[in-house]
Design goal:
161 residues; 23% strand; binds tetrahydrodeoxyuridine
Length: 161
């Protein structure tokens, strides 16, 4: 056996330093927190995706009294984009969260299930997804889900070849 290391690259900085497109998408994710249905967690998450034709689709977390039946903002948004705009590639996804009326200083990072769904978006469309995590003091940008989820499982792992 040999030791191996993985290097992960991402951008970090104040939200004001985001490029214009990422900033626009982050703003849309912030706005989307307003549609969150989160009476149990009181944690409002918004997401926005930018499609290849410039369309922006937004979504938010939707909870349920039977907790596991709820869904994160990221998957609500990605599935909504897939249902409303089938076949359109997703260029970027922005995520923002607020609680008690205040946006978080540090960004939230997506849960494992959402990362798994993002992985399939990339393999399905054959191009990477820029992921923008908004925080009021610091935001992060990942160019592709592999930086957030190395060694992920995908359909290509199911071959015996
Ligand atoms: N949540 C999201 O919508 N996205 C995330 O990345 C993390 C968590 C939601 C799920 C639940 O409604 C609430 O935030 C608390 O976990």
């Amino acid at each position: 056996m040999e030791k191996r290391n993985i290097e992960i690259s991402y951008m970090a900085g104040a939200p004001e330093t985001l490029d214009a497109e990422s900033r626009m998408l982050a703003d849309a994710a912030c706005k989307a927190t307003e549609s969150s249905y989160s009476p149990y967690s009181h944690f409002q998450v918004g997401a926005a995706v930018l499609l290849e034709d410039g369309t922006v689709v937004t979504g938010s977390n939707q909870e349920n009294a039977a907790y596991p039946s709820g869904l994160c903002a990221e998957r609500v948004t990605i599935f909504s984009a897939g249902a409303q705009h089938p076949g359109k590639k997703i260029k970027a996804l922005a995520i923002a969260a607020q609680t008690g009326g205040t946006f978080l200083k540090a960004p939230i990072t997506p849960c494992g299930a959402c990362r798994q769904v993002m992985t399939e978006v990339e393999s399905r469309q054959g191009s990477p997804l820029r992921i923008i995590l908004f925080g009021t003091e610091q935001s992060l940008v990942f160019d592709g889900i592999s930086s957030l989820m190395p060694f992920c499982f995908g359909a290509e792992n199911m071959s015996a070849e």
